[in-house]
From TrEMBL:
Belongs to the SYF2 family. May be part of a spliceosome complex. One of its GO terms (cellular component) is Prp19 complex. It is found in: Nucleus. Pfam families: SYF2. InterPro entries: mRNA_splic_SYF2. Its main location: nucleus. The keyword Calcium does not apply. This is Pre-mRNA-splicing factor SYF2. It comes from Papilio xuthus (Asian swallowtail butterfly).
Length: 237
């Protein structure tokens, strides 16, 4: 079977075409290249805009986005389980390995909800949330009665004089006093001032060394009391 040379076939075809047909073919190819160039330029512009938008995002944006998607998916599955009358936490544990379930349980136990002091603002928010949580349930019936009784003065606008209109109930005052006394007692428990004992032995050279010695005494005092007494009496072997 004889092979056909492609270049010879194209040259033969071009020779058979008229000048107008050749010109039309060239214009067609030019328009095709022009369209491809415009399309590439549009794609490049879109990529530049998208990259600039990504650079303006915070560094942890992707992690937060994945976390948000996971939370939405988890909430959706939880709602579906509730509709079917199933306990979602048990269903979720059935789909993970025992090792992973044990790791999640250890992480849950290790997690400390009280992160300690970070800022005064956060400390104020935590204190406010604790106080609100300990408040009794609102008496909506009494709330509506007071709202109808005082009218516009109930909310205390800028042009309303409310002084002397409200009368505090005795049980409300007692609750406030009990709550304040509880806060004072709790605060005194954790921030009591250590009284200096002048009769105590001076076994330290500075404040830091005194704290260290107190720690040693707290953990090892019962085990080393006899040795310490022998050293003081001079009867240690």
């Amino acid at each position: 079977m004889a092979s056909v040379d492609v270049s010879e076939t194209l040259s033969t075809t071009n020779k058979d075409m008229t000048f107008a047909e050749k010109q039309a073919e060239r214009m067609k190819r030019l328009r095709s290249l022009h369209s491809a160039r415009n399309e590439a330029r549009s794609h490049n512009h879109q990529e530049v805009v998208a990259e600039e938008a990504r650079n303006k995002l915070p560094p942890n944006y992707e992690a937060k986005r994945r976390q948000a998607e996971w939370l939405l998916e988890d909430q959706k599955k939880r709602e579906e389980a509730a509709k079917e009358g199933k306990e979602y936490d048990r269903v979720k544990l059935l789909n993970i390995s025992a090792t992973e379930a044990e790791r999640l349980e250890r992480k849950k136990k290790k997690k400390n909800p009280d992160q300690g002091f970070s800022t005064y603002e956060q400390a104020t928010v935590r204190q406010y949330n604790r106080l609100v949580k300990n408040m009794p349930a609102a008496d909506m019936e009494q709330y509506e009665k007071q709202k109808q009784k005082y009218g516009d003065a109930f909310y205390g606008g800028p042009n309303v004089i409310i002084h002397g209109m409200h009368e505090d109930r005795k049980d409300a005052i007692d609750k406030m006093v009990d709550d304040l006394e509880g806060q004072i007692a709790k605060r005194a428990k954790y921030s009591r001032r250590r009284i200096h004992n002048d009769d105590a032995d001076i076994d330290y050279i500075n404040e830091r060394n005194a704290k260290f010695n107190k720690k040693l005494e707290r953990f090892y005092g019962e085990h080393t009391s006899e040795i310490k007494q022998n050293l003081e009496r001079g009867t240690a072997i």
